[in-house]
# Entry
Amino acid sequence: MAGQAAGFAVSSPGAEQQRSRSRRVLAELLKPQMVEMWGAPSLTAYLPLPMCLIFLRWGAHKDWAALEDRVDAHLAVTPKGFLSEVGERTDRLLKGCEVAPAMRFALQGLEPLPTAEVRQLMASVAGLDRDAFRDLLDAHADIERMDSRRAFTPRTVVALLSELVAPEGVSGRIHDPYPRGGELLSAMVAASGDGSVTAVTAGKPDGATLRLTAMNLMLHGVTPRVGTHDIAPWPEPAERRQEPVDLVLTNPPFNAESGRVAAGGWRYGPPPPSNANFAWIQHILSTLGPGGRAAVIMADNAAVSDQPRERAIRQALVEDGVVDGILALPPHLFTGTAVSACIWFLSAPSQRTEVHFINARELGELVTRTRRELSTDDVRLLGQIHRSLRAGNPMPDEARALGRSVSVEEIEQRGYSLSPVDYVSLGAYVAATPAQVESVRRKLDDALDLAGSLDEEARRCWERAAPGRSPGPSAGGRRNVLLQDLCKVQPGPSPSLLNPGMYSEDGPVRVVLPKHLRNRRIHGSEDTRISARDARQLERFLLSEGDILCTRTGTVGPVALVGAEGAGSLYNGNLLRLHGFEPGVDPRFVLAYLSLPGTQAWIKDRAAMSTVDSIKTSAMRQLPVSLPPYEEQHRIGELLRVFDDQVAAHQQVATAADAARGELSTLLMDIAAMPAAHQPDAGLVPYIAHTTEEEAEDE
# Structure
């Protein structure tokens, strides 16, 4: 039982070095050569093998020792027999905590090569730490591209909850009704360290994740008990309710539909069928024993929803004193969803007169374009604020800006909103310094100087190009050709080769999309990338300087010349690439020709022949081109390049001017000029409900 948790390894001076070594060993175990050697058709099919071995290594010492003895004794252990034994031992342990076994079946699907080395595999796994199991969970989530309802709670959020809930350990009975991969429960077991956790129970969303939960907890030294609740947190008869618990930590699915709601059994009122957020809240409260507490990750809208039933439940929760506090998390912490979240701190009913709010929206840093993490200092600061508010202790100035205790009366005036943003505003601006304003002014001046020089160059181009002031383009020497005579026309890779699921925010290779083609240039492709491994399979679609891209699907027509910064990028299947231009053909002239109104009309007419506007590659190759001699092509291309440069320069001026205005405005304004809602002691505006009687009846 949970008393076994005493075996959990506490941090040591060499813990970080061990973590680093473990990651390196795991990276070797997950290489394609290992997947192939052990006969797995994919990395997904291979992952159960290292998962089971790490589980036995840390959660079943006798079983692991028995495997080691067989290998060390040079007994005849074939790779196939080894897989069968690993699966059987894992399933036997899972049965012990009433979890449906399936690992032997999963490992039977592997067909190891004769070169598979059991001894080498065992030696590698022996070098992994407990946290390697979480590394495998993350790898599993990435491969499966889990949505928000199945994805595991991010490490940074787990670390924060450990700091907020268990800074000095936990004790008693702990429970998670929606355990995902068991990451929150295992963190609490790790925080206890001394065996003071007497029982660990878990709900059962589905068999696959429940197996991961059980394995994760058992390798941390506890055997969990699986409850009777499945994915629907409905009220149950008293005889089926589980024994009350001391602590609940959970990350239930955000905004899941709850279906038809039973009329009775809801202490704070029936939740709407369209959203189970408050079904989860009430279920969690029903499991708490005397003195019990809970920390629940909820979607933001639960705190502010104007849905009549949800607003009534929020009011009842506040008035019954079960809401201790709410912490607003920063955005981009969770994978698989754009919904931001809050942590709700709940307890048994009381005569509470205040609720503690913390607004951490601005903390953390983006580690990729779409994923944010909290730093160790962020976690420590939020823990200090949380404990100070609960104890009523004073906080330093920088902490007071993030947290505040609010009376129940004020919450009532706010219409029972429980959003920290309504009580702890981060909207007060920080006035710019004169040095900052001077810096942005210099950037604006530089942009204006560049635009001015290009304006002058453009005026000279007008002088040279204007009719009657320079020799006009001559029809002599022109050739009527097809686009395919001038260059190669290559469509982008099909969705089977390149699709949005392959995009990686921190990948090294950019992917150009139709939306990136603006004013005959490529803009913004740094936001769309893929891994180097995926890019190696698409080398024939790599762009070179001087190529031209054309939009072929959707809004057809936009074109762009690939500059030096775009070389080495890929382009997707909604674009055509013109490259390999014949001698005597200037790509800048071709770019200008493709931009002509007549050419654009020709392309759009042929694209409109399909159900969705799309120009076929074969049709594009047949585009007629009136091609002048190379000198004339070059002259036209260079003239029009100047105007494209002028357009780009003025866009930079607009951007710099907007930034300068923003900095200057904060220097000129003072706090008295701000809207009252953003001032620290803003007066409260009474809440006015806008739901009509008819809408309430519909609910």
The chain is about 40% helix and 15% strand. The first strand starts at residue 172 and ends at 176. The CA atoms of residues 561 and 591 lie 7 Å apart.
